[in-house]
Write a structure and sequence with these properties.
Layout: H1 3-24, H2 35-60, E1 62-66, H3 71-86, H4 91-96, H5 105-121, H6 128-149, H7 173-192, H8 198-217, H9 221-241, H10 246-272, H11 281-304, H12 315-322, H13 325-331, H14 343-376, H15 379-398, H16 406-424, E2 428-432, H17 462-479, H18 481-497, H19 501-514, H20 520-533, H21 536-549, H22 554-567, H23 570-583, H24 588-600, H25 604-617, H26 622-634, H27 638-651, H28 656-668
Antiparallel strand pairs: 1-2
Helix pairs in contact: 1-2, 1-5, 1-6, 1-16, 2-5, 2-17, 3-5, 3-14, 5-16, 6-7, 6-8, 7-8, 7-9, 7-15, 8-9, 9-10, 9-15, 11-12, 11-14, 14-15, 14-16, 15-16, 18-19, 19-20, 20-21, 21-22, 22-23, 23-24, 24-25, 24-26, 25-26, 26-27, 26-28, 27-28
Length: 669
């Protein structure tokens, strides 16, 4: 095996590792146990792919690029990502992405690179090994989820992101279920294809059943729905690809119809709350309800900046400013989010039409490749394309209600690359660089090798190889920064829990320094200094650092204001509470917070105005009515104060402050 063939072989191995690691990987020593670990594996894998390509080009002086029109939407998308990074208020966050989400410039460029990797490494071979890698990863993922579903948990978790406690290696039931929904159509293809051994086909069929069962037991609807619809697509393609007798086609058609009917029945069961999936209806309704407000917020952001948006991963920064009034009133400060839970809406809010349309163009190009390939191909090639398409369509459906976390995004871009490859089989275009040698001669009668495996090696260039080595070291160091910061933060929490406070303080200092762009490390360190060390001055400085890193972080400014009041730093408190009101003028808790601050500072009229707005939005909080009564009393509105105190007593008959207020009014009268 020559040098070029070896590098391609290693790249295929690396790509398989990326697919497996993005699903299975997690690290309990990290604060974000799941997604930061997965993102690091994916990013380091992309660096390895790029390094092997750089070495191959350095040694052959030839670059072979897949000649496909897919480069146009991918290039437009990459350029739009750069624009969305440059316009962001927090460019470093736009580059790295939020911890736990990783939807920044680096990761999306990595995903684009994965498409190139698939097109380059499998241009003369079937991409079926990529499906095998996904199915291999799905085995431990499904089994772990099934174990959790029956109450077997070998790794006791202190906290999970949300939802039912069936989340496997994903930390979130929705992500876990969505991933299995992508796996099911791929596993079904594995059971139907004649290109795999009987053992692989049987194992694939069993995995399809286990994955569907695990998705159902997770309590998350989206995985079951997309799995059934993706499977129906695969079965339908299998009917078209069959070259057997007509009666076999009839049975296959009946199977496709049965899957479609099952999918429809499952959706109806959930929608109407009846049947075997009826118990999922309440959770599905709650999930949809929580997403509607996020979608409205994303559309409001897009309407305000329709061309270039607010910057990558900036949704969380502007959520309070753009969320609808009804959501602010009903959820207050209890419900925040850093994503609209819809990939396309996230693109529109982050990068406007520039980013949204370029992303839609790539998705549209992939859909066109899928449709044209299904029309042109036949037999096993068409069936393979159908299997890839079933998994890809499953991703597209779940992306309407979910997030581009690493395992889901990796599956999407790799499957898209495989679809474009199988449908079009783009040739390789050669770019010859200075110093390239003539292709090595072959013996007469020898089998001709593909062009990308034949070139003779050029003389090694020590400068080029040294530069590649330096860039690899720098790349590994940079890509590992988020995981290192998360490990330091995790160490700080564990050390504080066992009373090793000095070491915990040092660990927090490390986390704040390593993750120099991230606001949550100084915020958490500030909480540590407040609650466990009692050092309010140091805590204030840390919360101010968090506010500088995340200028629109409402919680940071609230912490700054409260601690500044405790320390008697009036100028700092005044700045913080002005900033709080600038960030959010519609949430009742915010209005009450600032109103009570104004009341303490003797500005009774402004306090009465703000507290009046708070109780108008939500009138069941007795403490707010008491504060409003005091503010109105201080502003000379005794009648209004009396009504406020009486309302407080209606809500809480034990509200002694309200009773005292009424007595004071009576004495003054």
């Amino acid at each position: 095996m020559d040098f070029v063939a070896r590098t391609l072989r290693w790249q295929r191995i690396v790509l398989a590792v990326v697919l497996v690691g993005s699903a299975v990987g997690f690290w309990r020593g990290s604060l974000d146990v799941f997604n930061t670990t997965k993102a690091t594996i994916v990013a380091l894998g992309a660096l390895a792919l790029l390094t092997l390509s750089a070495l191959r080009v350095s040694m052959t002086r030839r670059a072979l690029i897949p000649a496909t029109a897919a480069w146009y939407p991918m290039g437009a998308f990459a350029a739009a990502l750069v624009v969305a990074t440059l316009v962001a208020d927090r460019p470093m966050l736009a580059v790295v992405g939020r911890i736990g989400r990783h939807t920044g410039l680096v990761m999306y460029l990595v995903y684009v690179m994965l498409v190139w990797a698939v097109l380059r490494q499998y241009h003369d071979a079937s991409p079926a090994p990529l499906i095998k890698a996904i199915l291999v990863a799905a085995v431990p993922v499904s089994l772990y989820g099934l174990a959790q579903a029956v109450g077997l948990e070998p790794l006791p978790w202190q906290a999970v992101e949300g939802g039912p406690p069936v989340f496997s290696t994903f930390g979130n039931a929705n992500f876990f279920s969505a991933y299995l929904g992508i796996v099911v159509p791929l596993a079904l293809w594995g059971a139907l294809t004649s290109t795999w051994s009987e053992l692989w086909r049987a194992a694939s069929g069993l995995l399809a059943v286990l994955s569907l069962l695990a998705a159902y037991l997770s309590g998350s609807l989206q995985g079951v729905g997309i799995a059934l619809l993706g499977a129906a697509f695969v079965v339908a393609v299998a009917v078209l690809s069959s070259d057997e007798a007509a009666h076999r086609r009839g049975r296959a058609a009946a199977a496709a119809g049965a899957v479609l009917v099952t999918a429809g029945a499952a959706i109806a069961s959930v929608a109407f709350g009846v049947g075997p999936l009826g118990h999922l209806q309440p959770s599905a309704a709650r999930s949809l309800e929580t997403r509607i407000g996020k979608w409205e917020t994303a559309l409001a952001m897009f309407a305000d900046r329709p061309l270039i948006g607010f910057g990558l991963d900036s949704f969380g920064d502007w959520f309070y400013a753009y969320r609808p009034q009804w959501l602010a009133v009903t959820s207050g400060l209890e419900r925040s989010t850093d994503t609209p839970h819809n990939v396309f809406l996230d693109m529109l809010a982050s990068g406007g039409l520039v980013l949204g349309l370029s992303y839609a163009a790539f998705v549209g190009f992939t859909a066109w490749a899928l449709a044209s390939g299904l029309r042109r191909l036949a037999g096993e090639e068409r069936l393979l394309l159908g299997g890839l398409g079933g998994g890809w369509l499953a991703y597209q459906l779940q992306s309407l209600v979910s997030i581009d976390v690493p395992p889901l995004a990796v599956a999407h871009w790799v499957l898209a690359g495989a679809i474009i490859l199988v449908a079009n089989r783009p040739p390789l275009r050669e770019w010859t660089l200075p110093g390239a040698s003539a292709p090595a001669a072959q013996r007469p009668g020898a089998r001709r090798r593909p062009r990308d495996q034949a070139p003779a090696l050029a003389r090694p260039n020590p400068i080029a190889i040294g530069l590649i080595a330096v860039l690899v070291v720098i790349g590994v160091w940079a890509l590992a920064i988020p995981l290192r910061a998360e490990e330091a933060a995790s160490d700080a929490l564990h050390l504080a829990a066992v009373g090793r406070l000095d070491e915990a303080e040092q660990a927090w200092d490390s986390a704040v320094g390593i993750g120099f762009w991230e606001a949550r490390y100084p915020a958490m360190a500030g909480g540590f200094h407040t609650e466990q060390l009692g050092r309010l001055s140091e805590a204030l400085a840390l919360h101010q650092t968090a506010a500088r890193r995340e200028p629109r972080g409402l919680a940071h400014w609230i912490n700054v204001g409260r601690i500044a009041v405790s320390l008697g730093e009036e100028a700092t408190a005044e700045e913080a509470y002005q900033r709080i009101l600038e960030l959010d003028r519609q949430t009742p808790e915010v209005l009450a917070e600032v109103g009570r601050y104004r009341l303490e500072r003797g500005d009774a009229a402004e306090a009465a105005r703000l507290l009046g707005q708070a109780v108008e939005a939500r009138d069941e909080n007795a403490e707010w009515w008491v504060a409003l009564g005091r503010a109105r009393s201080g502003a000379g509105d005794d009648a209004g104060a009396r009504r406020a105190f009486e309302r407080a007593l209606q809500i809480d008959p034990e509200a002694d402050d309200a009773r005292d207020g009424l007595e004071q009014l009576a004495e003054r009268a």
